[in-house]
Amino acid sequence: MHFMPSFQVNVIIENKPEIVDPEGDTILNDLILKDNKTNVKKVRSAKMLKFVIDAQNKETAEKTVLNICNEFRIYNPLVSKVTSEVITL
Predict the structure, then answer these.
(1) What integer is the mean pLDDT of 36-48?
(2) What pLDDT score was predicted for residue 11?
(3) In sequence order, what DSSP letters do the residues of 37-69 get, joined into one string?
(4) Whose CA is closest to 56, among 5, 1, 11?
(5) pLDDT tens sequence across 56-84
(6) Residue 73's pLDDT is what?
(7) pLDDT at residue number 32
(8) Are 73 and 35 in contact (CB under 8 A)?
(9) What pLDDT is attached to residue 34?
(10) Above 80 in pLDDT, residue 37?
């Protein structure tokens, strides 16, 4: 029996920089209203999906999860920017 390690692949989906982010703007406005001395200049919101997958290596785990995200249209590539990180479990 061949043992395959498990990986957690975090997929972060956020609006592209040129796309308006109302949630981030609301959070920033609330910060400024509550503390007008805040040093925070911009807030961008994002969604993170955490996949746990068995794979031969980190690269395969990441590629498999990103292919799943593309195949099932989990995000809109016209407005979303996707980044990922892989953690060995």
Answers:
(1) 90
(2) 98
(3) T--------EEEEEEEEE-SSHHHHHHHHHHHH
(4) 5
(5) 999 999 999 999 999 999 999 999 999 99
(6) 95
(7) 86
(8) no
(9) 86
(10) no
Q: Residue ranges of the domains in the chain? A: 6-88
- Answer yes or no: are the C-beta atoms of 85 and 13 closer than 8 Å: no
Instruction: Specify the fold of 6-88.
Output: Mth169; Chain: A , (3.30.1280)
Task: For 41-53, give one letter per residue: b (16+ CB within 10 A) or e.
Answer: eeeeeeeebebeb
Q: Which residues of 56-83 are buried (b: 16+ CB within 10 A; e: fewer)?
A: eeeeebbebbbeebeeeebbeeeebebe
Residue type, 41: K
- Token pair listed for 65: 């999860």
Angstrom distance (rounded) from CA 23 to CA 14 = 11
Tokens for 5, please give them: 């390690």
